[in-house]
Amino acid sequence: MASHIAPADRHSHDGSADEVAVRLRAAGLSPTPRRRRVLEALAVQRRPVGAHELYVELTRRGHRVGVSTVYRTLSALADAGLVHVFVRDSETRYRLCAPGRHYHLVCRRCGGVQEHPAGDDGDWLDGVTAAGGFRPDPHQIEVQGVCGRCLRCQGDDPAD
Amino acid sequence: MASHIAPADRHSHDGSADEVAVRLRAAGLSPTPRRRRVLEALAVQRRPVGAHELYVELTRRGHRVGVSTVYRTLSALADAGLVHVFVRDSETRYRLCAPGRHYHLVCRRCGGVQEHPAGDDGDWLDGVTAAGGFRPDPHQIEVQGVCGRCLRCQGDDPAD
DNA sequence: CGTCTTGTCGGGAATGATTGTCAATATCGG
DNA sequence: CCGATATTGACAATCATTCCCGACAAGACG
Q: Which residue in chain B has the smallest CA separation from A143?
């Protein structure tokens, strides 16, 4: 289990112990063991995961965490902008956000998310901003569609 | 109000009786009175409205419609792509979609939505498409942020 | 004209994710 | 070691949404 936090864990992985603590502090949360576990469990996931899903995962690994804690932690991280929030099938899902400007390409088939760096597309974003003084949140741009993999596996243009 | 469907109503308004029927048919729904009322009530709204909210509104106007019907109709319209779905405060909200490509600028403060026509921004969208073969849904691009009005009314950069 | 068929409707119960409550517990400064 | 403070978790409560099912309307058909 995670009973001993060995130095072997110190590679610069998303789940690195230091990294996790830093992120938690950035969200204004003290890095308690439970919160760490929640964030660590989230960091391993590539797709947005629901709070309950995460809770089950943690429990299965033998970590004793309450549902409330999972919800609270995720909610706080989301408020701090450290994780991005997606809604799918009437369930709120969370995904650890990479730092820096990027858009999210959300596949409505599989629910997967690709991050698409902004940068050279700044012009477009600026154009949007100009429209009525709207100020976009750089991390909160969602393009929905169907990802390449789903397109390949399930035909070109299904009636849906 | 809409009590008498006089010929005067035949301007190309969103709530036109013909228009409503057409849209319903487009969604594969026969234009029954209740469904018409739901769609008409939706058409008047500029901001995304929740199903229950719409139900209350209809009831208050003296129209006897069941909750189920409202949910069912909205859901069907959404599936057909005739209305766009937004989620805010853990409530699914619907908004009648203008035809043609456009993005949605969603204000996270007031929940308002502006439609921003695509067109000349096609290049950007194409760039996105190139990324891993992702095929975006032209109506399902959501840019979140804060709208000009909210910015003006509530200060420049509140801590949120 | 009466009946059958099919689709629609509404009310209320059931579902399921999320949040609130509150006592128990851990943490930290001194 | 002690008290103040923050955190935690079990469980109840909430609330949007869906399910269920009997009732009903309109057209088809004999």
A: B141
List strands edge to edge, sheet with A91-96: A49-50, A91-96, A83-88
Task: Give the DSSP letter string of chain B.
Answer: -TTS--GGGGSS-TT-HHHHHHHHHHTT----HHHHHHHHHHHH-SS-EEHHHHHHHHHHTT----HHHHHHHHHHHHHTTSEEEEEETTEEEEEEPPSS-EEEEEETTT--EEEEE-GGGHHHHHHHHHGGG-EEEEEEEEEEEE-HHHHHHT-SS---
pLDDT tens across A78-103, in order?
A: 999 899 999 999 999 999 988 877 88
Query: Is the distance from CB of B94 to CB of B48 less than 8 angstroms?
Result: yes
Distance between CA A80 and CA A72 in Å, rounded?
Answer: 12
Mapping DSSP to helix (H, G, I), strand (E, B) and coil, where does residue A94 land?
strand
Find the residue in B nearest to A157 (Cα): B135
The residue among A45, A21, A23 whose CA lies nearest residue A33 is: A21
Output the distance from B32 CA to D30 C1' rounded to whole Å.
Answer: 28
Cα angle vertex A91, ends B81, A158, to 5°? 35
Strands A102-107, A113-117: pairing is antiparallel
The answer to whether B51 and B95 are in contact (CB under 8 A) is: no
**What are the tens digits of pLDDT across the range B60-108?**
999 999 999 999 999 999 999 899 999 999 999 999 988 877 889 999 9
Footprint of strand C on the protein (CB under 7 A): A 32-33, 50-52, 67-68, 71, 75, 90-92; B 29-30, 32-35, 64-69, 72-73, 90
Predicted TM-score (pTM) of this structure: 0.85
Whether residue A116 and residue B105 make contact (CB cut-off 8 A), yes or no, is no
The whole-angstrom separation of Cα B40 and Cα A126 is 35
Place of tokens 């008409």: B40
